[in-house]
Amino acid sequence: MNHWSLHPQLAGDTHPVATFGLSELRLMDDANYPWLILVPRVPDARELVDLDAAAQGALMEEISRCSRALQALFRPHKLNVAALGNLVPQLHVHVIARHTDDPAWPAPVWGRVNARPYTPEALVECVSRLQRALGV
């Protein structure tokens, strides 16, 4: 029997926010952007098609929940939602609030500017605000 565990790269680059029915919700340690990561707790899942129909539906609901929270808290110009996995093969979905004045706009966030880690105080504040907005 396979057991699910968080990929070490995701564990090192993110902070825990909440546990949903399907996914672990994490905050990317980059204060340049409000950037959430959903990681479905499905062993060996690499692609969206590796999830059965029920899990795909649950993931879409969790993406929507995170998107609404980011909209309420940060009033972004655009939300970027992506499941790339080119460097980290474990299935994970990025939900990123984008603003026209963010450091990478209008390009994708990957590789544009160096990550700006949260200070301990800012991390606690951001996670708390997200948890309140998500109702967890």
TrEMBL record:
<dbReference type="InterPro" id="IPR011146">
    <property type="entry name" value="HIT-like"/>
</dbReference>
<dbReference type="Pfam" id="PF01230">
    <property type="entry name" value="HIT"/>
</dbReference>
<dbReference type="GO" id="GO:0016787">
    <property type="term" value="F:hydrolase activity"/>
</dbReference>
<protein>
    <submittedName>
        <fullName>Diadenosine tetraphosphate (Ap4A) HIT family hydrolase</fullName>
    </submittedName>
</protein>
<feature type="domain" description="HIT">
    <location>
        <begin position="36"/>
        <end position="105"/>
    </location>
</feature>
<keyword id="KW-0378">Hydrolase</keyword>
<dbReference type="InterPro" id="IPR026026">
    <property type="entry name" value="HIT_Hint"/>
</dbReference>
<dbReference type="InterPro" id="IPR036265">
    <property type="entry name" value="HIT-like_sf"/>
</dbReference>
